[in-house]
Amino acid sequence: MARMSDRIRSIAPGGDDGWGIFHAARALEEAGVEIVNLTVGDHDIRTDPAILAAMDDAARGGATGYAALHGIPELRTAIAKRVQERTGVATSPANVLVTTGGQAALFYAVMGAAEPGERVLYPDPYYATYPGTVRAAGAVPLVVPTRAEAGFQPERSSLEAAGEAAAILINSPNNPTGAIYSRDTLDTLAEVARAGDMWVISDEVYDTQIWSGAHLTPRALPGMDARTLVVGSMSKSHAMTGSRIGWLVGPEDAIEALSAAAVHTTYGVAGFVQAAALFALGLGPDFETRVAAPFAARRDVCLAALERTSVRAVPSGGAMYLMLDIRASVLDAPAFAARLLDEKRIAAMPGDSFGRAAEGHLRIALTRPEAELTAAIAQIANLVEETRP
Question: What is the Cα 292 distance to its own chain's centre?
């Protein structure tokens, strides 16, 4: 076989970039083994039938050819309206690029913000695809450490110590920690970005999953709309993970330039999927609240279940996950997760998958019914007790 390029090999130089447990869990499921899979944020509640009907109607009505590459005008208008209503920032269709999910939007944002070889900062812990996405775009990933004692909020000293960079990539509400960045944190990020002439790439796919506090986009801060690129998605807000429909919001000139990336990678999003997204957005904010509600309830139930154990959760203000502190075990998190899957048939992501700041932790996705989640927590607590020094 001819040699694969260094570019491809560099995307995940450590092998699976922390996805080993996820792949092992999927392999067991495909082999017919029954497990409780808490690895990824994929809703156990399926896409609403009305949205699927709209998708079917659009496909049968002829929306099966190439669609507008920036996104169909009606959908760009609906996204702009949603963003403006939720954030208070003036947003027009020209500020919106429709993408094949939030992951594509993230990739385009990094491509547009950083030259090859330039650095992109992101706080640790981080979503597992961030370093690979930065490397795939030709940039250099650099983590900014955060502290559990500071609620995993990025601090000025760590941001300034990181040095020059082309962009800062943030995620609030945060996956995996559930942290919601405060106004003070975002003001600091904005000041550092302005001083260093950096872009801020803001991953806001969990903006409807707010359990305490409030979500604020850095795009709303003074002078930041011209240097902020916002990643959005229908995946979490409308339970449409498999439909692969998202967007990127930013300055009009930037969106026009970034559309070239969409042309030369995915060549747009299927028209019938865009039609379904347009219908889904038309269901309004009450629908989004209903989609998020089970995860708020499950979070509360899980926190109550944890009170009966020696395991504690990292304080979480949003998103559909809990980070559990398992440092009482003699096992490190990857070994603990492997044993949990092997012995208890429970799949959860080791904190190390998300960076060094999350070592000694386990992330569970709140994507199963409450009874299964509380049973899983009991099993996790039992394994901690079984593996104490």
Answer: 15
144-150 long-range contacts, Cβ below 8 Å, gap at least 24?
144/168, 145/356, 145/357, 146/357, 147/357, 148/314, 148/357
Question: Is residue 141 within 8 Å of 163, Cβ to Cβ?
Answer: no
Nearest to 377 by CA among 305, 291, 287: 305
Q: Name all domains of the chain by residue range, CATH numbers in brackets.
A: 6-46+286-386 (3.90.1150.10), 49-283 (3.40.640.10)
Query: Is 105 in contact with 71 (CB distance < 8 Å)?
Result: no
Instruction: Give φ, ψ of 135 to 5 degrees.
Output: -65, -40
Q: What is the DSSP letter of 250?
A: -
- Give the residue from 372, 177, 208, 335 showing the smallest Cα distance to 280: 208
Report pLDDT digits (tens) over 257-268. 999 999 999 999
Are the C-beta atoms of 135 and 8 separated by less than 8 Å? no
Residue 202's closest CA among 227, 184, 182?
227
| Cα–Cα distance measured from residue 379 to residue 372, given in angstroms and rounded to the nearest whole number | 11
Q: Which residues contact 82 (CB under 8 A, 6 or more apart)?
A: 281
pLDDT tens profile 261-295? 999 999 999 999 999 999 999 999 999 999 999 99
CA–CA separation, 39 vs 21, rounded Å? 8
pTM of the full structure:
0.94
C-alpha closest to that of 264 among 130, 107, 118: 107
